[in-house]
Structure formats: C-alpha cells, structure tokens
Amino acid sequence: MVEIVQTFDFLPNANLQAYAEFAKRSIGTVLQAPGFVEFRANRNALGSPQVRATWVWEKKADWEAFGESAAGMKMEDEFRTYVTNYHVEIWGPSLLVPEPIRPKR
C-alpha cells in the first residue's frame, strides 16, 4: 500500500461550493480507478494548511497511472484553480511497524 498525502490551502477567492462539487465528482472518478483503496480528508483545526487529503493505493504505479490518465490530468488542472500552498508526500509502510498497532479491548 502507498498513501498519497496532499496538503493545501484554499485560494482567498475560491468558490468553495464549486470546489465541493468538484471534490465529489473527483472522488467518484477515483473510486473506479484500478488499485484505488481509500480516501480520507481532514481539516486542520489550527489553520494552515487547511486541508489534508489522503489517497490510499495498492501500489505507487497505480497512483502514477491514474495521474497520467486523461481523467487524472483533468482533475489536477481543475483542482489547482481552487488551491494554493499545495504539497504532496508519498508514504509507504514502515519496515519495523508495517501494520497499525492497537490496544486489545
């Protein structure tokens, strides 16, 4: 598994209703992509970056293939009309702790 973590702020003049519609369409598109596993979104309670979006893929190659597809490139272009301070990180499993550790209950 690989996690693609995006953080960003909205442009001051961004139409947030239009962004919400775009996000809903985009998530629907990605749900159909080969190798896609999960999407999570969080807001920053302390300010900036305002949003963290995490996209989980089976393999990095799956994410790359989607990003290079016509649908992926179109999404990226429209996404950038709403945001600033955009940053991407790619995370893979830890060699020492590859699975979550949770308390027994």
CATH topology call: Alpha-Beta Plaits
Please name the CATH architecture.
Answer: 2-Layer Sandwich
Point out poorly predicted stretches: none
What's the tally of helices?
3
CATH class: Alpha Beta
Structural class: alpha+beta
Q: H/E element string?
A: EHEEHHE
The biggest beta sheet reads:
4 strands, antiparallel
**Overall tally of structural domains:** 1
- The residue-averaged pLDDT reads 97
What is the straight-line distance between the termini? 27 Å
Shape: globular
Q: Strand sequence of the main sheet, in spatial order?
A: 2-3-1-4
Number of strands: 4
In percent, how much strand structure appears in the residues? Answer: 25-35%
Rg from Cα: 15 Å
Helix content: 25-40%
Tell me what the structure shows.
With 105 residues, the protein is an alpha+beta fold. It has 3 helices and 4 strands. It has helices at 16-30, 60-68, 70-79; strands at 2-10, 36-43, 51-57, 83-91. It has a 4-stranded antiparallel sheet. Strand 2 (36-43) and strand 3 form a beta hairpin. Helix 1 packs antiparallel against helix 3 (70-79). It is globular, with a radius of gyration of 15 Å. The relative contact order is 0.27.
